[in-house]
Amino acid sequence: MIIDNLYNEAKGKSPVCLGLDTDESYLPKCISDLGEGVADKIFKFNKDIVDHTKDIVSCYKVQIAYYEALGLEGMKAYAKTMDYIRESGSISIGDIKRGDIAATGEKYATGHFQGDFEADIITVNGYMGEDAISPFYPYLKEKGKGLFVLLRTSNKSAVDLQDVEAGGQKVYLHMGDLIKKWGEGFIGESGFSSIGSVVGLTYPDEFYMLSKTYPNMFFLVPGYGAQGGTGKDLARILKESACAVVNSSRGLITAHKNKTEDTDYAQHIRNAALAMKGDITRWL
Ligand SMILES: O=c1ccn([C@@H]2O[C@H](COP(=O)(O)O)[C@@H](O)[C@H]2O)c(=O)[nH]1
């Protein structure tokens, strides 16, 4: 199961999930000056980053919004990036946050678990209930795919809805119970389910509690670096269970900024990923 592969990658390499939220403004001059279209430049940058980090990170999360914003050219760069990550033997997470009625959900599943945009794991929004999630189940069983369902998001306004009490329980805990139930049929050898959840590092106490409440749940954790999360926030959680991969996007893929515009940019990004790995693992 994909979750066992991700668990093994996180243990063997590091819990670092490198986020390819690639904005054109992040490209070093040695790439932006090339006489090619933007899709080719972005793909070149992403490819170089993968080549320089695949031995030290557990997975790559590609934020589709950055590619959609560039239209057809951007989507070509997205497709090539997803393909290259998987071709390199690494795990790809398509951060697409989809979720809709079942008929539409089936199309999302087809669009992102096979074909041009194929990912190993995608992020989904379960706040429409199980029929927004069940169209993905056949791909989990038959193609070994995985899901990370939004649980406790990293943004400030997460509390507006997720902290509301309903029936004596916060909404996000209802969601946690649902994700646990949806994931019961997909538990792998690692003890974790291929239906995991997204929990922000910006709420470390809630994250700790969730990791204790749901011992079979694996977590995708955004919020490290640019959003303020640190390795110290993760210490007690990861010490007790290797239950998460931790994403950093801007904090890693802009590490070369103000240092170099030359072809050594990917080495700066690698160094930043190594520093993140060190910051997380020194507490374990
Ligand atoms: O709760 C959430 C869910 C998803 N994200 C995504 O993670 C990255 C974070 O990027 P940074 O540059 O490291 O802040 C981005 O793709 C978000 O869309 C999140 O931040 N919080």
UniProtKB/TrEMBL annotation:
The active site is at 97 (proton donor). Belongs to the OMP decarboxylase family. Type 2 subfamily. It catalyses: orotidine 5'-phosphate + H(+) = UMP + CO2. Its EC number is 4.1.1.23. This is Orotidine 5'-phosphate decarboxylase. It is an enzyme of class 4 (lyase). Pathway: Pyrimidine metabolism; UMP biosynthesis via de novo pathway; UMP from orotate: step 2/2. Residues 15-266 form the Orotidine 5'-phosphate decarboxylase domain. InterPro entries: Aldolase_TIM (IPR013785), OMPdecase_type-2 (IPR011995), OMPdeCOase_dom (IPR001754), RibuloseP-bd_barrel (IPR011060). GO terms for biological process: 'de novo' pyrimidine nucleobase biosynthetic process; 'de novo' UMP biosynthetic process. One of its GO terms (molecular function) is orotidine-5'-phosphate decarboxylase activity. Keywords: Decarboxylase, Lyase, Pyrimidine biosynthesis. It comes from the Bacteria. SUPFAM superfamilies: Ribulose-phoshate binding barrel (SSF51366).
